[in-house]
């Protein structure tokens, strides 16, 4: 079955990079955390932004999710420049949310439950600094919530291996090209979406039934 899946994935014509099926550490019982309810923007990098965008669009209270680039020095980067790894930017999603319905803490919990924060500059077969795990905080409260949560997971050995997620102050966020936006919902029939993104979306639906949009 693994060989068959690998052959099918090799036929994908459009993807963040040519890749095999991603291996995500299974976090069946996510660590709960104290909720924070006073912010309306969150910015996360956790691998290919097609995946993270699709995940957060499922959550009630999320108003919009924009795929883009952040964390590097090059202004107005293109996808090709970011993909080269030379721009310093990470693929990321900027989430606007209603804090009365979902908190930054809840978004952070979903973020850590749906990617591998223990692999440096890599998610599955996606390799490069543009695929790093990083939280870009917008104020000191988000910074403290994030560092406290990482410390809590580290103490509990949640992932077994050390967490390498960076925690950085948010800088300028550059929206990605139009064809990257809402990518999964517009391209679900593609093999990459089916084999890589759909399992992540289904995991969110299973673990967070009470947080999904009706």
Please tell me about this protein's structure.
The protein is an alpha+beta fold and 214 residues long. It has helices at residues 2-10, 49-57, 79-83, 104-113, 140-155, 183-186, 191-207, and strands at residues 41-46, 62-70, 90-97, 122-123, 126-127, 133-137, 166-169, 174-175. Helix 2 (49-57) packs across helix 7. The relative contact order is 0.23.
Features:
214 residues, alpha+beta, 6-stranded mixed beta sheet, two-stranded antiparallel sheet, 7 helices, disordered N terminus
Give me a quick take on this structure:
The protein is an alpha+beta fold and 214 residues long.
Strand line-up of the largest beta sheet: 7-6-1-3-2-8
Strand content: 15-25%
Helix run count? 7
Q: pLDDT below 50 for ≥5 consecutive residues: which ranges?
A: 1-15, 18-25
Give the helices and strands as they follow along the chain.
HEHEHEHEEEHEEHH
The number of distinct β-strands equals 8
Structural class: alpha+beta
Helical amount:
25-40%
Q: Span from first to last CA?
A: 35 Å
Radius of gyration: 16 Å
Largest sheet: 6 strands, mixed
Mean of pLDDT: 85
Global geometry: globular
């Amino acid at each position: 079955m693994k060989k068959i899946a690998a052959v099918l994935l090799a036929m994908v014509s459009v993807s963040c990079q040519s890749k095999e099926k991603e291996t995500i550490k299974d976090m069946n019982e996510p660590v709960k955390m104290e909720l924070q309810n006073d912010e309306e923007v969150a910015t996360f990098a956790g691998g290919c932004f097609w995946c993270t965008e699709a995940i957060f669009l499922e959550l009630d209270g999320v108003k919009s999710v924009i795929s883009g680039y952040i964390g590097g020095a090059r202004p107005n980067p293109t996808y090709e420049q970011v993909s080269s790894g030379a721009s310093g930017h990470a693929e990321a999603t900027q989430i606007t949310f209603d804090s009365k319905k979902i908190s930054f803490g809840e978004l952070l919990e979903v973020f850590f439950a749906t990617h591998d924060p223990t692999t440096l500059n890599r998610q599955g077969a996606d390799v490069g600094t543009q695929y790093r795990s990083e939280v870009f905080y917008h104020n000191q409260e988000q910074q403290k919530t994030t560092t406290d949560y990482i410390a809590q997971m580290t103490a509990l050995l949640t992932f077994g291996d050390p967490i390498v997620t960076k925690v950085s102050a948010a800088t300028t966020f550059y929206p990605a090209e139009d064809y990257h936006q809402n990518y999964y919902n517009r391209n679900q029939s593609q093999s990459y979406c089916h084999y890589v993104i759909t399992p992540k979306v289904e995991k969110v639906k299973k673990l967070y039934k009470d947080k999904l949009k009706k």
